[in-house]
Amino acid sequence: MSRRSVAVLGATGSVGEATLAVARNHRDRLRISVLAAQGTRPARLAELAREFRPDLVVVASGDGAAALRSELPDTTSLTCGGQALLDAVGTGGLDLVVTAIVGAAGLQPAAAALAAGADLALANKEAMVAAGPVLHRLAAASGASILPVDSEHAAIHQALRAGRPQEVCRLLLTASGGPFLDRDPATLDAVTPAEATAHPTWNMGAKISVDSATLMNKGLELIEASYLFDVAGSRIDIAIHPQSLVHSIVEFCCGNGIAQISANDMQYPIQYALSYPERWPRAAGSASTGLTELLQTTSNLEFRQVDPVLFPAPSLARAALAGGGGAPAALNAANEIAVDAFLSRRVPFTAIVPVVARVLERHDQQAVGGEPESIEEALAWDSWGRRHAREVLAQFGG
Fold this sequence. Notes:
Layout: E1 4-9, H1 14-25, E2 30-37, H2 42-52, E3 56-59, H3 62-68, E4 77-80, H4 82-90, E5 96-99, H5 107-115, E6 119-122, H6 125-142, E7 146-148, H7 151-159, E8 168-175, H8 193-196, H9 206-214, H10 216-229, E9 236-240, E10 246-252, E11 257-261, H11 267-275, H12 291-296, E12 304-305, H13 313-323, H14 327-343, H15 352-365, H16 375-395
Parallel strand pairs: 1-2, 1-5, 2-3, 3-4, 5-6, 6-7, 8-9
Antiparallel strand pairs: 8-10, 9-12, 10-11
């Protein structure tokens, strides 16, 4: 059996670590050829490099490289910088690239991997939001596949195998509701970054955890699902499901629905993407509870409607998708800037979504063309969204 050559971008983050846990359990099927990370955890990155012995390690800066150089195996090369990352994934030789870089920064590496013909295991929803149609065209031209790693989109991908595209009626994305689902809205002004990043069911990075608290992550996922599966936003619903066990549901025209259920462990959707179109067995001695045991110990599966007053972000995202042009890219960019301002305590939690809304208002007031035709156009709208978000933030004192 030949092993697939894999690059893991964002190797020391939560998704990267979960990916490497899967690779650790399937060494006969996967070879980690490239590890890439920001470089803020050099000791951990060096430890992973010594374990997996990749051909190449890539970090963001020369300072990060200096901290690593003497800690890597002799057979592992070290490079740094954005162009080095694009070269690592874009020169061919890789079978699969797992992109777990947070934010629009993951867009260019994703595009480079697809253009080179590598399948893309996409954990970076922001890349698909900003330039989904462009990434699809790159994949079609090279014969590469885009395999979703987000649990919701991996669930839809699996459920869609039960029917033909023309038989799909609706998609239902589930959301945990985040840490403030039952909190008094009048107290949200006082929310701290520590509270907003304390997710009740998933272990995620700070930015994604805040997006879950505002439900912006579900808005971004709605746009991503529309682009990934070629389903209009009007046929994609969102439901609050606090247990995070039913990850999504596909409703077919006959009225039957196919739900995907698993423990809230990122290794499940990651292994699905790495093994597709096969299904590999769970690792012997896996700590994750089996499905039968999981359901036997779950007293109920709760579903609620999304309150658009408490959680206006999904409606903003739906409007951006319907508006087209650069709106999805601008929405994503503005959200990144607003979340960063909150995490650095420059604005309150309750300012995040209003900042994004005002940037979208500015977008809608412009004469806007069609969807971005290239990565460069998508990045231009990303820059536009960031610039206007900073201007709006100044009005909030941030």
